[in-house]
């Protein structure tokens, strides 16, 4: 049976990470059930272009409407391996933290938690106030993985695309559905610092 993953796109900055995740899952032969929030339609347009949401929907195997709360992915009986929310806004994070399943994206995330499946949240905001941090704590206590898309500067990325690609790969790896897709850290390839730097810090 084909492996299926839900990708939820909410209205935080970083819509391009969702695009890369969907592309990579396709290359891995993983079927994608996609759901895009209304705010994400806007960030996709703002951060990429006006047709970006439509192109993303076309890349998915199934694109669900955000208000279709009776869709397959709203049920725990639908065979899903896990879900990535990328990027995850503070609104969506808070809704998941309190099971406020008022749209399909939040409902699908709630389903992953109740079915004890992987739920990876690429939460994006800065700086963070106590309410954000409490919501992160709550979803972590419920079993989700909070994974802000923070650049891995130690890999010396040479472009935004490289940063986006690495964040997307790390998120997919957190699903633990197959072999690792983010290359392992290799100090000799990614750094001129072999073991201990001049300041005495390790290279990682
Ligand atoms: C260009 C743009 C960038 C935004 N960036 C963020 C962000 O990084 N984090 C965040 O929590 N909200 C951000 N927002 C605000 C959310 O889109 C807003 O809170 C929205 O209600 C979230 O709805 P959703 O969770 O249903 O997608 C941004 C909005 C816009 C228009």
Poorly predicted parts: 194-204
The first-level CATH class name: Alpha Beta
| Strand order, largest beta sheet | 3-2-1-4-5-6
Rg from alpha-carbon coordinates: 17 Å
Mean pLDDT: 93
Count of separate DSSP helical elements: 8
Order of helices and strands: EHEHHEEHHEHEHH
Number of strands: 6
Choose one word for the global shape: globular
CATH architectural arrangement: 3-Layer(aba) Sandwich
Tell me the fraction of residues in β-strands, as a range. Answer: 5-15%
CATH homologous superfamily heading: Flavin prenyltransferase-like
Keywords summarizing the entry:
globular, 8 helices, Rossmann fold, 6 strands, alpha/beta, binds flavin mononucleotide, six-stranded parallel beta sheet, 204 residues
Give your account of this protein's structure:
- This protein is α/β, with parallel strands linked by helices and about 200 residues long.
- It has one domain: 3-Layer(aba) Sandwich (Rossmann fold).
- Helix content is about 40%, strand content about 15%.
- The chain contains eight helices and six strands.
- The chain has helices at about 15-25, 40-45, 50-60, 90-95, 105-115, 130-140, 160-175, 185-190; strands spanning about 5-10, 30-35, 60-65, 80-90, 120-125, 145.
- Strands 3-2-1-4-5-6 form a six-stranded parallel beta sheet, sandwiched between helices.
- Strand 1, helix 1 (about 15-25) and strand 2 (about 30-35) form a beta-alpha-beta unit.
- Helix 1 crosses helix 7 and helix 4 packs across helix 6.
- The protein is globular, with a radius of gyration of 17 Å.
- The N and C termini lie far apart (about 40 Å).
- Bound molecules: flavin mononucleotide.
- Flavin mononucleotide binds near residues 10, 13, 40, 46 and 90.
- Flavin mononucleotide binds near residues 10, 39 and 90.
